[in-house]
Each structure stands twice: as C-alpha cells, then as structure tokens.
From TrEMBL:
<feature type="signal peptide">
    <location>
        <begin position="1"/>
        <end position="21"/>
    </location>
</feature>
<keyword id="KW-0732">Signal</keyword>
<protein>
    <recommendedName>
        <fullName>Porin</fullName>
    </recommendedName>
</protein>
Length: 459
C-alpha cells in the first residue's frame, strides 16, 4: 500500500500537456504500475452543467404549458474515462457516463410523471467507448512511421478534427453537432463498433476505421414526384462503413495516444494543422417514389485547418485559437435531421400560426444533404501574473448551411467567452447562439436565440 501511494504521489507531482492551461494540475489522476511510470492507469472525471435561456420555436410548450421562452438547467455531460497502458505496446480504454439530463427529460427509459421514477430522473449510464489497441510499430522502430491497431466501440470516426473533438477543451461552449453527422442514428453517441488503425509518418498523422454501423429502420414517406422524395435513415443489414482522417502538423506535433482532438491549448503548444477526411457507407438511407424503394449511399467529406499559436511576449501568456472547415454531406435526396441539444419542449396541439418545420423548442435543421462552412476563433487575453485568479478568452463562431431540402440557405453565429479559473479544469463559459427557424422550405428562415452559462470541472 505504501508503494502504491508513493507512485500516486509521484504521478500527481509530474508535469504533462494534459494540464491544458493549468500550472497546478500536473499529470492528473494517474496510478503508476511500475517505478518507471510506463505502465499505468489514468482516470479522467468531468461534469458540464448548463444554465440556459431559450427562445422557443413557434408552437412549443413545456410541461403542458405553451411558452415562447424558458429558463432551464441540466447536466450536459457527466462522465468518467479510464485507460491503462498495460505494457508499452498494449492499451485498453473504457469511457462511460450520462448526457443531456434536464429537469423534465433525459431520464432513464420509461421515466415519466411524478415520483421516484419521474420526469428526467435516474438517467441511464452507458459506455461511450470500450476498446483495446496494440502498437505494431512504435515511434522509432521503423524510422518516422508508427502504427497501432485497435478494436471495439470507438471514436476513430474520421471525417474531421471536430468529428473526433475532445469534449473537455472546446474553444466555444460545445460542438456545433453537425460535425457528428451520424449522432445517435447509425452510431452510439458518435461511436461505432469496429476496427481502427492510427499512427504517424513524420509530421503526417493518420486514422482509418472499418465499422459496422448500428441498424436504422425509418420508413420513408412515399412521394409521387421524384423531386420531392426525402431520404431517411434505413440501412437494413448495414454494409461496413469506411472512414479516415489525415492531417499534416506543420509546427508542434500533437499526441495521438487518444483520439480526442484538443480545441484550445491556451498557449501551451504551437500548432498549425491542415486535414482532410471522409466517411462512406453503401445503402445507408432510403427513399420511396411511387412505392418503389431506392437505396442511397452515405458519402461525407471534409477539409479543415486548425491553429493554436502563442502571441507576443511570452510573459503575457496570450494565444489565438482558430478552426475552419468545409463539409460536404450526401445522405440522399432532401435528407435533413432536426436536432436540439437538451430540448425540453413538446408540440402545442392548440397552437395557431406557422409552426417551425424542425419542431418545437430549440430544434433546428442540423445535418442534411448539402454543404456546411464553419469557422471559429478565440483570443486568450494577456496576463502577467504567475497565477492569475482568472483568465479570459473571448470567442466567436459562424456557420453557413446550404441544404438541398431548402430553397434558401441559413447562417448562424455563436459569441461568448471562457472564464478560466484553473485552465480547462475549472472554467465558466458564457455563450449566446442563434439558430435558423424555417416555417417554409422555400422562404428564408427567421432566427431565434439561446443564452447558456456552462460550469465545467474535470480532474
């Protein structure tokens, strides 16, 4: 026991780039299994709690009461992750937790009404990731080339940096969600079951995967006009999906121990990367025209760039973080998915007027056949104090979507700031976001807003 406690103490006093912006965090919660420290178990725990005010889509009600605006709270994420480096070549990882629990929904299946199993209570704990991997070629064994192979429920989903983003260190408050294009449809919260290969060749990093998507079985609405056919998720006995992402890291090289891509290093690294990725699944969606079923491939492509650069005099600790990406999505004719993070609203059956096509609450056309342009940037403001009480990082993001299902394209923005108490480990994020509201597929959308305060801790 004394030896174990000594290993824990040494680990906690170490330094690591996991301490994104925090001078005190060290190596985190890590248990060394040998004196050299190359065999260990690492634990990561985190919670993201939201306070939010939402302008509701027309035709919304909450708790049976019609409303056009509502305050609410909820656990956006509450999770635990553990990975063990059993040997220098073999690693296993488990990641579990809950998401999107509010005062009225997000509880365990079947929870409803009042009481111990009422609305929003006892939400279901589930595994996000569970895989093992083996380093076939470690760095230095074959020149500049390295290779690891793995299998399980995993996050190596290709396509873009944002598709494999870490949820611990976003620049903005959260993901734009469209970068998880299969979210809880043919994946399990952005993961699929399958195999992956990852590694580096000099400054080029690569990730490829072969997966069996989760089965989908939505019934397409029959159309008599082929131009009005709408593709839905229905892959029957799914074909294997293929995905990949490659990027060139011009400046500092990033760790690829885990798949999770950092959103903001807070000046602890000097990074500039260019990347490109894809996802393909044959016969992933279906349409019905005059009662004839037609299958369609899901083919997704993205190119992106990421930069995180310290600015000016080092004593000021300033840094700029930026990301830009272009996404081309082909899901089949007129495909659209309307999503709303922690949506608390239901449809008001007595509403008179033009309802939002997306539905009630904060639902919006998030993913669809067409093109998406996204950009975000933030500036870590200067501080000369060795241990400042707080660091401030204002940011802004812009999204432009041009979906086949709508005649008019849409644009939306996010603006806010991170208030770092201890880097990403203890921070408060404030953000105001807009979203498009379509009441007709042929007319320009109006806009609604949402203000969110997030309280984040992670160990």
């Amino acid at each position: 026991m004394k030896k174990i406690l000594t290993c824990i103490g040494l680990a906690l006093m170490g330094t690591s780039l996991y301490a994104q912006g925090s001078p005190d965090y060290g190596s985190g919660l890590k248990l060394n299994l040998n004196q050299q420290g190359d065999k260990y178990v690492r634990f990561i725990l985190w919670d993201q709690f939201w306070l939010r005010n939402t302008e509701m889509n027309p035709g919304s009600m909450v708790g049976g009461e019609p409303t056009d605006n509502s305050w609410n709270v909820g656990n956006r994420r509450l999770r635990a992750l553990a990975y063990a480096q059993i040997s220098k070549r073999y690693m296993i990882l488990l990641h579990f937790g809950i998401n999107n629990q509010t005062f009225i929904n997000g509880g365990a299946p079947g929870t409803t009404g009042t009481g111990g199993n009422g609305n929003g209570k006892k939400t279901q704990l589930f595994f996000h990731d569970a895989w093992n991997e083996y380093a076939v070629l470690m760095p230095g064994e074959a020149g500049k080339f390295s290779l690891s192979l793995g299998a399980g429920l995993h996050y190596y989903m290709g396509l873009s940096r944002m598709t494999m983003a870490s949820t611990l260190n976003f620049l903005t408050l959260d993901s734009p969600v469209f970068s998880w294009p299969l979210i809880d449809s043919s994946d399990q919260f952005a993961r699929q079951l399958g195999f992956f290969a990852k590694g580096k060749c000099g400054k080029l990093e690569y990730r490829f995967s072969l997966n069996k998507p989760f089965a989908t079985d939505l019934t397409p609405v029959n159309a008599t006009d082929p131009a009005r056919a709408v593709a839905v998720d229905n892959n029957g006995n799914p074909s294997f999906s293929k995905a990949g992402y490659i990027e060139y890291q011009f400046l500092d090289e990033e760790s690829n121990t885990l798949p999770f891509k950092v959103g903001s290093y807070l000046g602890t690294k000097k990074v500039f990367n260019l990347g490109a990725g894809f996802y393909h699944q044959a016969d992933g969606t279906r349409t019905s025209v005059n009662s004839n079923i037609e299958k369609h491939d899901i083919t997704l492509f993205a190119v992106d760039a990421f930069a995180d650069i310290p600015l000016g005099n080092a004593k000021n600790k300033m840094a700029v973080s930026a990301y830009a990406g272009y996404y081309n999505y082909q899901f089949g004719p007129n495909y659209v998915r309307n999503l709303g993070t922690m949506n608390i609203a239901a449809s008001d059956p007595n509403f008179v007027g033009n309802r939002a096509i997306a539905g009630p609450g904060n639902l919006q056309p998030t993913i669809g056949t067409g093109n998406i342009i996204y950009a975000q940037a933030g500036l870590l403001l200067p501080s000369q104090a060795e241990k400042p009480k707080i660091r401030i990082q204002p940011f802004a993001a812009f999204t432009h979507k041009d979906f086949e299902a709508f005649t008019k394209s849409s644009s939306q923005f996010d603006v806010g700031a991170n208030w770092f108490i201890d880097g990403h480990h203890a921070k408060i994020t404030t953000q105001y976001s807009t979203r498009p509201v379509y009441t007709s597929p042929t007319e320009s959308p109006t806009s609604k807003g949402e203000f969110i305060v997030q309280f984040q801790i992670y160990l």
